[in-house]
Every structure is written in C-alpha cells, then in structure tokens.
C-alpha cells in the first residue's frame, strides 16, 4: 500500500497485492493519522468490469467499539476504482469485504492520498460551483456535516452519458486483459468442455460467418460447436458450414433432411454434444471473446452448478451495441411470467437430457418451456447469474431470426408452458394472459379463505383513516377480514369519533397505545392482539382502488415457501411509489422504479410481472403469523421508524423464505402525510442511528441485492447505468 500527501509521497510501502478469500481483510492505518482528513483511495480490482467486487469500509473507534462507515467507490474503467471524501474521525483501519458469493479476490495498486482542503474546494468550484458555494456557506455558520456532504457531492466528476461510452470504458477487453485470461486458462488442469449448440435455418451468410467466427475466437479454447442445419434452402448456408467444419475439428455439422423448426433442430444439435455443459446460441448472434471463459471460470469455482446465465445486449446490422439487459439473480417467480434468463444460458447436459430436451410445438418460447421444466429440478444454490454482458443478440431485419417470425405463436406457447408446469406440480392455480402478453399465475385461495388481520398504526388524521377503513370494509371482496387499529394517542375530536364509530363494527378492534411514535412497537402490539393466521401491516394513508387486491396478496402469502408479500403502491397522480425494494440504493435501501408513470411497464417489463425481491415496504406488507414470530417481529428497540420493514424481510429471507412483490394488488399511497418528514434534529439523529444499525447488521447484503444488478446505478433504483 502507498500513502501519499498531495503529490509528495509521505510513506512508500512495498506495493501491496491484496489476495483474500470470502473473509474480510483489514489494513491497519492507525499510525497514519487519517481520521477526519480528506483523502482519495484508489485501487484496481483484477476482476474486469464496471463494479468492484469488494466493499470498502473505514473503521473508527466509537463508544461501543469499532464503527464502520461504507465508502462508495466510483468506477473509472478497466477495473480501476476511486473513493474521495473525508474519513471519519478516529479511523484506525480500512476493511475490504468481498461481495456475497465472491470467491478469492485480487486487489492491486491500493493507494491512499491525503488531499488539501483548499485544493479540493478549488476543484469542486470548477465542477459544481453552486454546491461548492453551499458547502462554504454551511462551513461559515458552523454546520460542518452539511458542508462536508455538499463538498463531497461537488467533487464527484461528471458521469458517462451513453451505453457505447460505458462499453468503451467497462466492457472492452484490452490486450492486457486478453493476455491475462489466456495465461490463466493455460494454467488450468481440469477444464470443462462446453458444447455450443446452434440450430441454423437460412441466415444471411455474412451474419452466420460472424456468429461462427465469434465462437472460434473464444479465449477459452475448450469448446465444441454443434450445428444442425434445419434443411436450409439457401445453398450458401451449407457451404459456409462446410468450410467452417473443415477448418476447425471442434465444429461439427449435421444437415437435417427436412425442416423441423427450432426445437427439433436444437435437439439434433444436442445429439452431437459431448460436453458436460451446453450453451445455447442462435445462428446470427455473437459471443464476446471472453464469454466461455467467464462460464468456465464459474464452473471451476462451483463444480456443482447446473445452470449459468449472463447479461446480454443487442447488436444491429452495423455492429452497434444497444439495449443492454442487466439481470438479477435466480428468480423463479419472475420466470413464470417471462424468460428473463434468455441469453447466454448454459445448462448441464445431463439435466437437459433428463427433461427430454426441447419440445416441438413450443416454437418461439421453446427456451422458456425448457427452463420451466428444468426449474422443477433446479436447486437455487446450483444456479449462477454472471453480471457480465456475454451475448450480443442480433436484431437486424431480414436476418432470419427464429424468434422474430413467430411472435403470436410464441405468446400462446409461453402460456401453455406455464399451464403445464401448474399441472405437473398439482397446483390448483390457473394461468392467464397478463399485461403486454406476459404470463400471469393466478393462485387459488384455500377454502375457506384464512382470516387476514389488518394492523393499522394511526394518530389523528381522521380523513386518511376513514378512507382506508372504508376501502377495507366496503371496497374489498375478501371474505374474512379483521382490522386492528392501533391508536398512537389521537386527540383530535374527529379522529376519536371515527375510532369510536369504527369499533362498533364487529370486524374492527381499536387498541390504545399512546406515547412517542414507534412503528415497530405499534405493529408488534397489533399483531399480538390479532387473531388471523395472515397479518397485513398497512399504513393509515393507503387507499383501496380495486376489490381483489387482498385476495391476490393472501393467495401468495399462504404458500409455505413465501415469507412476505408486497403490493404495487402509487401516488395519487398515478406515478409509482413502491415496486419492491432494492438494497443499497441511497445508502440502505430504496424503492424500485420510483416515479415512473402509470403506463410504464418498467425495465424489461419488471413492473407488470410478479417477482421475488429482497424486501417490500411495511406500508403494505403481508406475512404469515408463524413466519413473523419466528423471524423475531419488528425491531422496536433499534428500528423504531425507518428500515424495520427491510430488516424484517432480510431476516425472513435469511430463514429461507422468499419475498414476493405483485403488481396485481394495486393501491394508492398518500406517503408520509400522517407522520411528516425527517425535519427536526431529533428525527435526523434517530434516522442516522437506524442507518448505522442497518449497515452494521446487513452491510454485505446491502452491497449486493441479488435481484438488482451490480452494474446499475444505486443513487436510485431506476435500472440505469447512471
């Protein structure tokens, strides 16, 4: 490690190569007196990409022992990262923690440079003069924390502005990258043979040649390309294939006597495969040079993997890359609705053979059907998502892409594939066409339907409570509802009158719980007084929009593998308020797709399809009583107001349950109208303490939301690069 002050090197240690496994590594910097100083920390993560696979934390001694502060680094391309800011007072060490699931890591060129405050102010003034002026003002009136925050924001350099710029910085292999990969592979002794299977039917010869060449140029050499020519009528196609097979013994071609379409042709290609793993590739698409290397590296790390899939983008006739799809980790609920895995997908060959390969008759959705059948046998721990673009999907018109030719049939086949999954598993559910043609799984409620106890903490604001009670008791068609209103010391006559009137309904109970607002304690008390096996925690500023919302949530919550369910919440103007929670956004967590319009389907349709998420908001959260109790209920001691819902969901997931968000339970949320904003010193201090609790308790999880993507920006969960 090197520590410098400005341009002059103060101490020059031997350049340090940090090699460590899944455990954290701490660097002792106590004698460097870095606390309360502005520094830049730079390092190189040899895992090439747009995001660092380690969490950088500053540890400082506090009254209750070491306190950690996460340092959010900024990527600059080719594995280089920098953090610039003021270290906490009393900083004694810097800790590097691998992201969840990461194996041994290698960090090089780790440098800490002490920066002059005057020089930083000058740099900030050039970049963002308004923020810099605000920083100087707050400094002049003694508000140092506000000043430091604004100065740090002003120092952030302008971001990249286009996907092609991102590709150039973060997804273009240098000659050094290629040499490193080739040297690494040369040292491997146990290498997996990967069979790339390619059905071919009348592609444009030029794009077919490009597809073949992209396989031949793979930096990982242990592959075979198994091609089935599905009786192409263009005589140029068999000539191209024959030349390729003659030039490379790893390429094998079989010509089918008659056209059988994509499923039959793929199965023919599968009969040529000898590899333990099969990679699926269309006849006009392109693999980047490191695609099979990344797959093989994952298999070496985890030999038990059954399925590996990657991120992807599209490529046009001119070779321009666009519309990247940065995916989340394994998400069976999302897979019911759409084939979000798509490309590149690699599967253990024996597993494909066990389910009978692809099925003719499902053309256009044959891959989705295969994945749904495979999902009957997959264990989540044996599925790995690689957050790297490893496939370029050609969209040029006239290329003969199979999926472009059968859109109407594809939708019907997708629906039938899910219907057959439901039948195989013996579920009483039904399948219907959802928004944009995606599948929707409509679960059946048990008979009789279990009681749902709705717990509503409230104080005054009768106009809000009246709306939510009316929606529950008269606007919801669920057959067995109990409402537990937990009154946190209402004093307004209108509220007291409403509570008295509501209590006359046998379905409503009112608990008196005066005192300081503590959402966790109020909710816990309400749950203890409730009688139903299903608990729904609901804010008093929720408005019911349609009668079937509660049945949708309950039908999911009763499933044994499900631990919590959340709904789609929108503001009164129709913009989205809650589409699930993404960890790490804004520091701890934030809502997915905030403020998108009512007709916006979200990133690749995510906001119109039910899916697993890391957490859902406590403004509308349903769980089974047994799950709630076993998870330890809400944390009333450390998380009285903020993040108690996130904490509960994370404990539920740690216990092995899934958390599901559904867009088919849609409500309106008049957020924060009853409690107000964090606008007093006391509220801000409480909020900061709750942030500290979450970062200390869930630091690694907050760094790596499995249902987001580490390449995407985390200022807000907008599913964008910046």
Automatic annotation (TrEMBL):
What's a Gene Ontology MF term here? glycosyltransferase activity
The entry's keywords: Transferase
Regions crossing the membrane: none
| Residues annotated as domain Glycosyltransferase 2-like | 195-328, 453-629
Q: Which CDD domains match?
A: GT2_RfbC_Mx_like (cd04184), GT_2_like_c (cd04186)
Top-rank taxon of the source lineage equals Bacteria
InterPro entries referenced in this protein's UniProt entry, alphabetically:
Glyco_trans_2-like, Nucleotide-diphossugar_trans
What name does the UniProt record give this protein?
Answer: Glycosyl transferase
Q: Which organism is it from?
A: Methylobacterium variabile
